[in-house]
Specification:
The chain is an alpha/beta fold. The protein has four domains: 2-98, 2-Layer Sandwich (GMP Synthetase, Chain A, domain 3), CATH 3.30.300.180; 148-305, 3-Layer(aba) Sandwich (Rossmann fold), CATH 3.40.50; 310-377, Orthogonal Bundle (Helicase, Ruva Protein, domain 3), CATH 1.10.8; 387-481, DnaA protein, C-terminal DNA-binding domain (Chromosomal Replication Initiator Protein Dnaa, Chain: A, Orthogonal Bundle), CATH 1.10.1750. It has helices spanning 2-21, 26-33, 53-62, 64-75, 158-169, 189-203, 214-226, 230-238, 255-270, 291-297, 310-324, 330-339, 344-361, 367-378, 387-398, 402-406, 412-428, 433-439, 445-461, 463-480; strands at residues 37-42, 45-50, 80-87, 97-98, 179-183, 209-213, 242-246, 274-279, 301-305. Strands 6-7-8-5-9 form a five-stranded parallel beta sheet, sandwiched between helices. Helix 5 packs parallel to helix 6 and helix 7 (214-226) packs antiparallel against helix 8. It is globular, with a radius of gyration of 28 Å. The structure holds adenosine-5'-diphosphate (ADP) and magnesium ion (MG). Adenosine-5'-diphosphate is lined by residues 146, 150-152, 157, 183, 185-191, 316, 319, 344-345, 348. The site of adenosine-5'-diphosphate has 18 residues, from helix 6, helix 11 and helix 13.
Amino acid sequence: MLKQTEKNVEKVWENCLKLIRDNVSPQNFKTWFEPIKPVKLEKHVLTIEVPSQFVYEWLEEHYIQLLRKSIKKELGAEGRLEYSILMENNMNSSKPYAVKSPAKGTGNLKNPQVAMPVSLNTAIKNPFIVPGLKKIDVDSQLNPNYSFDNFIEGDCNRLARSAGYAVANKPGGTSFNPLLLYGGTGLGKTHLAHAIGIEIKNNFQNKTVLYVPADRFMNQFVDAVKNNSPNDFVHFYQMMDVLIIDDIHFLAGKERTQDVFFHIFNHLHQNNKQIILTSDKAPVDLQGIEQRLLSRFKWGLSADLQSPDLETRIAILKRKMYNDGIELPTEIVEYIAYSITTNIRELEGALISIIAQTSLNKKPITLELAKQMIDKFVKNTVHEISIDYIQKIVCDYFELPLETLKSKTRKREVVQARQLAMYFSKSLTKSSLSAIGAHCGGKDHATVLHACRTVNNLMETDKKFKGYISDLQKRINLNHKN
Ligand code: ADP
Ligand code: MG
């Protein structure tokens, strides 16, 4: 009997997830839905266990409709959802406390019942604490340019940004403690970490906020040991209300620094002080960092920063130009954003060098010149899709020699391949109709336009043709990556 119920719970939730998965991005699915465990199904009430209060709130805020829909589909109009929230028992073990919400069948998705774990306030003895020490005036080391205002939001950073914003409004008071921001280089970790610090300073003038890169943290510690004052070092850091350590991966293999950081971390965390960390890797991939630290990183939230999409890249460039009081033709801005895709620092670098060039030459920059300069930046990291590249894929696919594609042949299958090459060139490159025509054996722009129209029409009416398009699209994408 019990077995039967268990099975149903899992099955029901599994079916809900199917619907959910189709409606959210893979990253969001992974972040918000994968950690959920279905725990109980009683009559029409499904209880799911979520890892923290924050996750519960986030689900309610962002996914309530979707959850409703999926529950209704699985359990009918009567279906209800209840949450059970895991609470962390911070200091004594890394195992969270499970707290079940009494199933009341209130018919309401709100108001989960959460009991506080008993031993939350257990104090640990801390040898470093100096009683009665006054608050000190600390220079936060924050760069005012790295504000939230200057941080452009996009799909690539939405989670990290909102988590950061939540932390800034309630430092130490959300379940994002520590908040670990991770991602590749030049994607905005440092900027966002500063933004959080700046916002906290704006909201709470009296809070002591400190930003420190991990290497400086280590050097200070080494100096302190040399000067026989490691305790002063620890006291100093334990007095922070908000501690931001940038590039924590730098501590890999530095055991003594990790050890001292562990003590500082525990002290701050236990006193509900906010810790913000950045790293170039997700915690699971952080080699050379002690397990006990890694498991503490998981107490809070790890949010990643990904490469920005085209729209976000353009917005970032525009913001930067606005801040610096510069204007550039849109086509140049778009060209930069189009060419540099993986690193915001490089994106800004390209912009700066173009601006430098214009002011040195004292004449307006042309797209041609901009292209030349940008190509230097792009190096081997980005391959722009070119007409040649598309023609090659199309020829391979239809097993046609390139010369035939470019010839004047009116044979049906060649015409079709040629039109497809033109169509993809138009939709995937920045080339003009006449440039595309010229690349296809000297056709004019009207021919290319006609080709694009024909492909669009056939796509809607001809199944086989539609198949060609999706095959080609796949090949182009596949080969284009790296
Ligand atoms: P990381 O620390 O991840 O290597 P940074 O925070 O130093 O990257 O960011 C590199 C540059 O890109 C900085 O000049 C930063 O201001 C800019 N930048 C990054 N993300 C954004 C964003 N979302 N909006 C505006 N500028 C950004
Ligand atoms: Mg950085």
